[in-house]
Design a protein that fits this description.
The protein is mainly alpha-helical and 45 residues long. The chain has helices at 9-19, 24-42.
């Protein structure tokens, strides 16, 4: 699914620096995976 996101430039740059992921699509995808995995650990079903 394609979508448009408005992401703060400084936040994006910091995430790229910390993660080592420079491609925006890959960075957002990895952030979603990580966030979801963390959420599932706190909220198991």
């Amino acid at each position: 699914m394609r979508t448009t996101l408005n992401i703060d430039d400084q936040l994006l740059e910091e995430a790229q620096r910390v993660s080592g992921v420079s491609e925006k699509v890959a960075l957002v995808r990895e952030g979603l995976r990580t966030g979801w995995r963390d959420w599932e650990e706190v909220n198991p079903n």
